[in-house]
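thoughts on my protein:
***
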Amino acid sequence: MPRMIFVNLPVADLERSKAFYAAIGAVNNPAFTDDTAACMVVEEGAIHVMLLTHEKWASFTPKTIPDARTHAQVLLALSADSRADVDTLVASATAAGGAADPTPTQEYGDFMYGRSFEDPDGHIWEVMWMDPAAISAGEPAETAA
């Protein structure tokens, strides 16, 4: 069985966050969703985002929830199938209430391209495309520009 990742994120407004992630293509798994948490499936059998109310989050750790708009704790990254898919996902996130490009665009010619978006709580997601042919050839990113 392949490993799966469950990204747990504290959110201020569960319904708003569920709507945001649905707008960028995630699907809610009602088996793991209630009024304190929602499981949003980004990639079936692989990537799940657990949206947790602040109260629910506090049941897992006594650590303070940082404001993701002013403090960075993680940068999350997703792969994309093409440069156009990178732009489409960032546009979808922006249209759903997120913010486009909180980090610099990564432009490495025909080898790699990446942009980012913030969700409504300020969590940053990078979206990256890499040319599979360049990856298999072992071309390092710094020489591709």
Summary: The longest strand covers residues 5-11. The chain has a mean pLDDT of 92. The beta strands are 5-11, 27-29, 37-43, 47-53, 76-79, 99-100, 106-108, 112-118, 124-130.
